[in-house]
């Protein structure tokens, strides 16, 4: 059982956490379908629920996919009452209390006891105050408000009241920059949604290197250049030279001694690695932000790696499809960082027609995989199932596992092998 992850950002637009979303039918299987007949039966069901959640948290790559950030996970009543709950690290995870959870003295006592052990809770999916909200508010550290569903006139009042009560405010379903700006002005602390990947022009995002220079470099790389040609192009932009020298002297890119010349850096790094570095550098924020904290780099890299991993599992995939996998994922978000339309930007990149069609029209295997990873980002399991039906032998569970593996790769700077994660670069 693997979760999918959804990013939480702070007021500066930097990653600070991920919600780990389990599939609804898996959550239901971990929750009692009917009242327990006695205390022993309730304990058995609670322990089973906890075991499934612990399995999800302990699944390969899940910890790495958090990239050092805090994880947020929905907590059923059964999970909260399980003895195994205390095995979950309070420093790593916070738990979200669903709006329909049954609140009684036993639950309140349990929350108080867990709070004494440093566990913290979030009141989830609030749209307006109700009886459950009032009962749980004293025992939660934060409140997650669905800003798209709260009546506009109520949102400022609710935010002000909760801030005065000392609660951390999390804005849910923030999918447009305007929503982010509004919520931030109202005093929200964290923001969950994909506003940072909106096609609207990102006026506050500064590139880590001139993007036209990156485009020129990408065009050259697509033509299989000689070292001399690549060296000449890189010399036109000192910022790129600086990035490449740092890349060549880091991790496995190093040749056992410090690289001193640009030509040595090119030879030590290799054109394939330089190409991937250049593609992701398009998305990097110029505020000296760590890759693990940059939401757009993380999203682009995860998509690219997911499609690459999935294609490798498809026996019917052609050489052309395999070669275009990483490019399809990484350039699916290129419209976010350029002022022009996505179509014009893709044309400027001179991408192959099948990659172009996959991104713009979702054609072919690559287009289906791009639909699949977007569905996983949203937690739209019906869409994941539809994609899986077209990607045999991959199942929905396989796709979810691959997404977590890809996220772990994007979140890592380990250079130990061919499956290593991203390289660090900064301005």
UniProtKB/TrEMBL annotation:
Q: Which PROSITE patterns match?
A: HDOD
Q: Record's superkingdom?
A: Bacteria
Q: Which residues form the HDOD domain?
A: 207-397
Under the heading Pfam families, the entry gives: HDOD (PF08668)
Read off the PANTHER family from this record: CYCLIC DI-GMP PHOSPHODIESTERASE CDGJ, PTHR33525
Name the record gives this protein: EAL domain-containing protein
Q: Which organism is it from?
A: Trinickia fusca
Lineage of the species this protein comes from? Bacteria, Pseudomonadati, Pseudomonadota, Betaproteobacteria, Burkholderiales
């Amino acid at each position: 059982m693997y979760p999918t992850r959804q990013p939480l950002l702070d007021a500066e637009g930097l990653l600070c956490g991920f919600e780990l979303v389990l599939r609804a039918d898996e959550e239901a299987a971990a929750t009692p379908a009917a009242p327990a007949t006695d205390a022993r039966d309730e304990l058995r069901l609670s322990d089973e629920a906890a075991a499934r959640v612990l399995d999800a948290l302990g699944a390969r790559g899940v910890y790495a996919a958090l990239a050092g950030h805090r994880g947020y996970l929905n907590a059923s009543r059964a999970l909260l009452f399980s003895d195994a709950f205390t095995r979950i690290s309070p420093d790593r995870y916070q738990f979200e209390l669903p709006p329909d959870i049954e609140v009684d003295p036993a639950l309140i006592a349990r929350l108080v006891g867990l709070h004494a052990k440093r566990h913290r809770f979030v009141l989830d999916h609030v749209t307006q105050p109700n009886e459950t909200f009032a009962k749980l508010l004293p025992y939660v550290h934060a409140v997650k408000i669905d800003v798209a569903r709260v009546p506009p006139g109520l949102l400022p009042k609710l935010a002000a009241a909760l801030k005065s009560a000392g609660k951390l405010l999390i804005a849910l379903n923030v999918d447009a920059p305007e929503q982010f700006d509004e919520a931030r002005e109202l005093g929200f602390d964290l923001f969950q949604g994909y506003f940072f990947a909106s096609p609207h022009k990102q006026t506050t995002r500064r590139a880590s290197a001139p993007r036209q220079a990156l485009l020129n470099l990408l065009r050259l790389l697509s033509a299989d250049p000689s070292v001399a040609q690549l060296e000449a192009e890189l010399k036109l932009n000192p910022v790129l030279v600086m990035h490449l020298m740092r890349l060549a002297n880091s991790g496995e890119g190093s040749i056992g001694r410090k690289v001193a010349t640009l030509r040595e850096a090119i030879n030590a790094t290799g054109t394939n690695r330089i190409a991937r570095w250049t593609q992701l550098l398009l998305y990097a924020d110029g505020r000296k932000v760590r890759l693990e904290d940059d939401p757009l780099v993380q999203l682009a890299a995860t998509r690219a790696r997911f499609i690459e991993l999935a294609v490798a599992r498809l026996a019917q995939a052609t050489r052309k499809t395999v070669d275009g996998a990483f490019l399809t994922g990484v350039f699916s978000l290129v419209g976010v960082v350029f002022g022009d339309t996505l179509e014009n930007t893709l044309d400027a990149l001179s991408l192959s027609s099948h990659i172009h069609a996959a991104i713009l029209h979702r054609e072919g295997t690559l287009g289906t995989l791009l639909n699949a990873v977007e569905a996983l980002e949203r937690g739209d399991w019906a869409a994941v199932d539809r994609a899986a039906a077209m990607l045999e032998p991959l199942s929905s569970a396989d796709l979810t596992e691959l997404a977590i593996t890809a996220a772990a790769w994007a979140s890592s700077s380990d250079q130990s092998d061919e499956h290593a994660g991203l390289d660090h670069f900064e301005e």
